[in-house]
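Morning. Coffee machine broken again, so started the prediction first thing and wrote up yesterday's gels while waiting. Chain of 247 residues, entered below exactly as on the submission form.
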Amino acid sequence: MPRDNMASLIQRVARQARITFRSPAGPAFGENLHRLQQLLDEVRAEDLHLAPRGPSAAAAAPAGGGLPWSGVVPPVSYMHICETESFSMGVFLLRSGACIPLHDHPGMNGMLKVLYGTLRIACMDTLAPAAAAAAPPPAAAGGPCHRALFRSRQHYTPASPPCLLSPHTDNLHQIDAVDGPAAFLDILAPPYDPQHGRDCHYYRLLEGPAAGAEPAGLPREVWLMETPQAADFWCGGEPYPGPRVCL
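Came back before lunch.
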């Protein structure tokens, strides 16, 4: 059964997010962000009326191989909870084997809390052009290239604290579902808005193993190439079943 405080908890998270990101440059931002992180860390799947989706959530693999949901249903779905000018909040659901490709969050803060399953998250920072001491590798002819710092690659579970990103730290990340379906509560501040320069860009690692593979020693500098959204990645929508949030 859901906990008695489920409605107040997600409502409190939303209210704290509104307070925190209303003035991200204000003197109390650090304290407010810490409070939001504490609240987000308390959220569990049952608080949002979500049940972990086991093997039955995906059909058997097709005879020709590949992922069971390929070409049939979206690998990732999104449940919208709320959105204001200063932040958006929702739940992403990843099917077994699904990946949200390496992408950025221009000028945005973000917080991610795993609700069920296990996620492998690779985080990177874009480096200033002047920091790039070497030329891009020959494979970089397909699109704009950026020097970046591959900072970390970690596993997150419901027992893990939230994964945080800022406009300058861990702003690029790739998210893989490991050993089954997974879901996470996501807060972005401010929301994506192409008209205000906050569009999502996708990238491919040009050297060494892919972002989801076992990396060499981290942190290390890498080259990224900007790419179109992958043809096998798209995000569908699902209704949010949890307590209503009013702001």
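Residues 70 and 232 are 7 Å apart (CA to CA). Going to sketch it on the whiteboard this afternoon.
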